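Per reviewer request, we include the raw input and output of the structure prediction for the construct analysed in the revised manuscript.
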Amino acid sequence: MTDEQLAGSFSRALARPVRAMSRMLSPAAPATAMVEPPSVASSIVDCALYVDGVRQPGGRHYAEALTAARKHRHAFVWVGLKEPGAREMAEIAETFQLHELAVEDAVTSSQRPKVERYGDMTFMTMRTARYVEHDELTENSEVVETGDVLMFIGEHFIITVRHGDACRLTPVRADLERRREVLAGGPWAVAYAVADTVVDVMVEVVAAIEEDVAIIEDQVFSPTKGSKGKGTDRIQRVYQLKRELMEFKRAVLPLQRPLAGVVSGQLAEVPEEIRRYFRDVNDHLVRTVEQVLYLDDVINSVLQARLAQVSVDQNNDMRKIAAWAGIAAVWTSVAGVYGMNFDFMPETKWVFGYPGVMTLMVVASALLYRAFRRSGWL
């Protein structure tokens, strides 16, 4: 053994009793340091085991429910989550063997609608939308509230993850439990019911937005007297509605491709009977997309029409200003001529010179006013 190795061994041997003595002499740690952090509230809204479309009684942990579901051919677990945290989602992912990329997407919101396969599991995401009621549309009104619904679909389980309150899934579960013949279709039956609810809410949203567009259209093309409704306030309301429609459009249009993939049979694990249900959902989505595109064109036309109205109003104001400036120019030119300091000017010594000039300016102004009124400038 070399001298360096002997020195290192001696230093480590001497360090052990020194650290022990330091722990003995150091003050005891406060009692609060041993207290465990408070537990975070669970994001699990509901967890149930279904066998042949019937919910089994009793509450179960999702791990126990999954073990029981794998013992039956026609059984599955439905776990509903609301904005789960990364730690809890990781524990669920370990139990259900979920892919890490899909789990990462489930924790964060604002996902683009898609359908992806990860081994024996399918990951499906959808944007949700809800119409926000308002008494009057203003330049700051929130018309559409959006969120996300994500689903992990396996042979014996489905996990739904909801972000936001745009589309609640509790009524979906209650309705499916009453429709046992549909629920017997397994996890993909739940996926159909969720997609159907999301699209049905979108149908309601586009109908409500259509009413807002009609109101804005009436306001833009209706004659309004006074200062109210003039200027840029109408343009701001139209632009705000345009922005809200664009947000809704980002939720509706990208959903076409995932649903079309399910309907066309790209996912072999979807039962044929459930695929027929998805086909009905896709039909509703297609009609909604057509309405959204139509409303988008209408709002663009209304916005262009309002901008044209503003330009016309500005031109009318400029013509009025020019007309009054022309009338004032008569007085200015005559007064400017006779305001020059020359000794030899016509009619300067005439007794009726001042009344005559005033009469001339009044008559000329009246003739100009009449001409401008006839031409529509005043």
